[in-house]
Design a protein that fits this description.
Elements (H helix, E strand, L loop, with lengths): L5 E4 L5 H8 L4 E5 L3 H8 L10 H13 L5 E5 L2 H4 L4 E4 L14 H11 L7 E4 L7 H14 L8 E4 L18 E3 L4 H12 L6 E3 L3 H32 L3 H8 L21 H11 L5 H11 L1 H15 L8 E5 L15 H10 L3 E5 L5 H8 L13 E6 L4 H4 L7 E9 L11 E2 L1
Parallel strand pairs: 1-2, 1-4, 2-3, 4-5, 5-6, 7-8, 9-10, 9-11, 11-12, 12-13
């Protein structure tokens, strides 16, 4: 049997949990270009809160006691991972300011691996891409920088990640994993490798392109469904009825899908549809449904901000230099992930109206928000400071029991984007 030595490229929300699961069975090196991140991990710390810290420390202990024959170690040194024979790529695949796929992290990782891979090595990609990307974009880079020939000297697999940040129920091992490989034999090998850690089982796709497409449509489907109820929210606001009341009534039918309106941000749902649309347009097809859904979902932050302003005016408030508080900036509740959060769009819209906007989020890293968005968020709510408008943008547990009377002025507007508070406490909600 082949003796696996695994290197996982990228130690974020996807790469770290994957590394720790494989580390129960094989020696695993978690590679990340962020030296500070590597140091934290080797000290048993995880700022993403995705890792089981007991599992992390157990993996580190096993690696040290076995002299690298089992367990986990983080590294930022390319030389340390050169002896691996399986490389799993979990780098981000974002979009640029034009909503086009940004493959730079993926290509950079492929170039880096091309410089160290050897004959017989297996490279497995987990990053979300459009159908055909692995074989058409990544493989040529691997061939160019390695001098090796695809499917003769090295092989490739694709197994799309299904990590849901902050979810402690649907974890890596409890969600069925799609696998694929560049040959029938490699497809079997990749499938068997993941079967070692995925207790929910695997689904071996007939080709890499099918596996890539399956990931792209998972989130595109959710995006389109959410865009429908977001459009309903825009319509029912004009009608003068509560969207959640309508959904509650419609949900009494057995086959009604209970999607809820809201901000659609994060690293997946608001990004992946653009990858699928990109491939479609390359092939001469304009994907109307997918892109219209994206337009609706991207408009919700602007709607929230304008609604808050209208409600303030209706109460006789002055907009310019009024004080607004946004509660939450992460893209979802009870999670520190701020990637591609749409809360920032609410902040900017309100600021454009001349409103002084504060953001408070006990889950978010102040430094990360400043680095990613150039926004300073509060360390905590200031004693005695009260606001003319409050937007509940994220339903963190900390906000559900907060007494808003302590932080709002008389005639203040409270807007609940998550419909998470008692409706008697808010002026409007999505």
């Amino acid at each position: 049997m082949k003796t696996y030595k695994i290197a996982v490229i990228g130690q974020g929300y996807v790469g770290l949990p994957l590394s720790l699961e494989f580390a129960d069975h094989y020696p695993v090196l978690g590679f990340d270009i962020n030296a500070q991140r590597v140091e934290q991990l080797n000290n048993g710390e995880d700022i993403t809160l995705e890792a089981d810290l007991n599992k992390l420390n157990e993996g580190l202990k096993k690696y040290n006691e076995s002299n690298g024959k089992l367990g986990y170690k983080a590294t930022s040194q390319l030389s340390e991972i050169s002896n691996a024979n399986v490389f799993i790529v979990t780098v981000p695949t974002p979009i640029d300011k034009y909503n086009a796929p940004d493959l730079n992290p993926l290509i950079s990782a492929s170039k880096m691996l091309g410089e160290i891979i050897k004959k017989g090595d297996l490279i497995i990609y987990e990053s979300t891409v459009f159908p055909g990307c692995t074989e058409e974009e990544c493989v040529p880079v691997l061939e160019k920088y390695s001098g090796l020939k695809f499917n003769e000297d090295f092989f490739v697999g694709y197994s799309p990640e299904r990590i849901n940040p902050g979810d402690k129920v649907n974890t890596l091992t409890s969600v069925k994993k799609v696998t694929s490989g560049s040959t029938d034999e490699i497809a079997d090998e990749v499938d068997n490798l993941y079967k070692k850690i995925i207790t929910a089982g695997t689904h071996k796709a007939p080709s890499i392109k099918v596996a890539e497409a399956s990931k792209a449509i998972e989130n595109a489907q959710r995006d389109v469904n959410i865009s429908f109820v977001n459009e309903l929210a825009l319509i029912f606001d004009r009608v003068g009825i509560d969207t959640n009341d309508v959904l509650e009534a419609a949900g009494t039918k057995y086959n009604f899908l209970k999607y809820k309106p809201g901000l659609v941000g994060g690293h997946c749902i608001s990004v992946d549809p653009y990858y699928l649309a990109h491939k479609a347009e390359q092939l001469g097809y304009h994907p109307d449904v997918i892109l219209s859904g994206r337009r609706v979902n991207d408009s919700i932050a602007k709607f929230v901000a304008s609604k808050v302003v209208k409600l303030l005016i209706a109460k006789g408030g002055v907009i310019k230099d009024s004080n607004a508080l946004i509660l939450g900036i992460t893209f979802k509740e009870n999670c520190p992930d701020v990637r591609n959060t749409k809360v920032v769009d609410i902040y900017r819209e309100l600021a454009d109206y001349g409103v002084n906007v504060d953001i408070y989020d006990p889950w978010a890293s102040k430094e990360e928000v400043k680095h990613e968005y150039g926004i300073d968020i509060l360390d905590g709510l200031q004693d005695g400071k009260k606001y003319d408008s409050i937007v509940i943008a994220v339903s963190h547990n900390e906000f559900l029991s907060m007494n808003l009377d302590n932080i709002k002025n008389e005639n203040a507007v409270v807007f609940d984007t998550k419909a998470c508070l008692d409706r008697s406490l808010v002026d409007a909600r999505l």
